[in-house]
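Troubleshooting entry. Yesterday's outputs looked truncated, so today I'm pasting the complete records for two proteins to confirm everything comes through intact. If either block looks cut off, that's the bug. Protein one:
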Amino acid sequence: ESCLYTGGPGCGKSTLLAALAIDSYFILSPCGNPLQELIHDKGVDASRAATFDCILTKNNNNVWKAAKELSAYSTLLVDEFSQITKVHLSLLVCVKLINPMVVFSIFGGVDQCRPHVAIGDNAYKYTKCCALIWLCDENMVELPYRAGLSRFDPRLLAVVQHFEKYHYINYDAIQHAPDSDIAKFNLHICFTNQKKIQIDRVCMTRF
């Protein structure tokens, strides 16, 4: 069943994507890094994964021709949906028009990866996009941040719960908790995009 899977970093999106990569599938991503992680860390078949641009280039940037190629698969898995462009989205729509039976499993989160499209200072609301909702048959699952996953940090969870309850972060309690030497303390704060935004601006200016 088609579905949009969203959630913050460390919620298990990549693990679930790899688990769904069975039988006749193909994985698409707007950039190469997530694919390399899926191939090397999750063990997915490299011959069944490519960036959107690679597929389009292979088909001479003919969206309909590329869609025909992808429509032969029973399942399309899309990673980092918040970074797809309008052309990428058009390609997915064409695939469904050609073969309505294709299952779309789409993953990502706007809080983790900066949206490719922005209107003024407001990030485009991909989860409200009619085309994306149609591709996923109006199904959406928000994965929770929970224990047992690779990026789960119980101390971070305690900080978040404290903040939700008291509306402030007790800095002293964090830094001076037992066995929390500041040099060894590994508090994984991963919801900030500030560094990525800075790098994006440098690259846009350069190129």
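Protein two, checking that the full record survives here as well:
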Amino acid sequence: YRERYRRQAINDLNLALLLDPGAEDAPDTERTVRRLEQSSASTQAERQQKAREHYEKGLRHQIDGNRVDALYAFYESVQLSPRFARAHGRLVQDAVYLLNLLPKDDAEALKTARKYEEMAWRSLSALEALDLDRSLAQISYFRGELNYFKFQTTPATQPEAREVARIAAVAGYEHFVLRLKAQGATEKTSAPLRQSLARLAALAPKDD
């Protein structure tokens, strides 16, 4: 049982850091995570350390504006540590950012986009599995964004698939908006809230 509780503690602390990375006690939480990671068997500890190194490399790439390199660094991190919630969160964040930049009518760009989509969906599913108390509102936002991209890139010759993507995107955004408003966010103070509301307006059924 000790090992199971150790892994759960690491997971819970990583989720706390993902939710509020700027919290006053974040440095202490970070140190606790490191100690817990180092308390495992040597092989597991090495994998955790390498996963953290890739994660930190990804953060540096983000700061430098190298978002593709960041995406792959986070991908390497979660391959080594599948329960690393912060790495999954950053991977999805980066994938969504890149998908929004890619041209929607370029065949070669769409091939690249499908790789990013697949990576993002896998990490989003992992993040949902790790978020046992459903505290991460961002999951709904990312689900909205990924389905919105699918809606945009599904050919008009596939109206049923487009409608499925549209409905899924709306559901993601609506849930995210409700969570943010419940937390006291407003359009003035929250860019993600403004973005979600704009997406919902764009996805609203058009009158014939």
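Both blocks look complete. Sanity check on protein two: The first helix runs from residue 2 to 19.
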